[in-house]
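Could someone model 2-phosphoglycolic acid with this protein?
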Amino acid sequence: MSDHSQLIVANWKSNKTIAEVESWLKEWSATKTALLSGLEIAIAPTYPHLAVVHQWLQKDDLANVKLAVQDISPFPAGSYTGAVTVANLEGLNIKYALVGHSERRRYFHETHTEVANKVEQAVQVGITPIVCVDAEYAELQAAALDRDVLKKCVVAYEPLEAIGNDHNQSATEIEPVVRRIREIFGSVRVLYGGSAAAENVREYRSIVDGFLVGHKSLQADSFAALLTAATHQ
Ligand code: PGA
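Reply:
Sure, complex below.
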């Protein structure tokens, strides 16, 4: 592990209505305080829910909770119907953008080059890209990125076979991949994603700088349990 603080990102994917987001935030507000020391947390809702979470972050005392997007357009503002650009996000205080999630690569056919263009867009406005990679294409993805932006990225190692199924990879399995990612990307924060849960996060603590959490972030209580486990070593 490097000397970065732990970053834990809640990736809600295409889940939740506004009412469900509001009840998550309400439940969270009741339990949060003890969980935040020493952790940086980011919440990645869908685009229509960003403003709701943004408002909540304003009024509560939540300095170490940040807002993230799950994707970003590879293009600047302009005639790109349906795309959300970094310009559209101005004023929402977006700190992180997931780019190249395996679900984007799989269902939306994103290429390493498109992911690299998204990274460029994000860093131009000071949004930190969280580049998601599997072991087999980490190197190719890094090669598509400008050397200067590599060091501005966070990298999330997400083995495909561990996503969304409660079959997390063991610490022994991920250790050599994370080491290789650090060789390729340099001194960046590396997160693990793939069924991260309260029951398993402790085993990775000496290896990674945090977690990208999907299904265990959907309920405020399971996410709170994960944070508790990550905090208490
Ligand atoms: P999971 O998802 O925690 O549900 O495995 C992680 C991710 O895909 O970001």
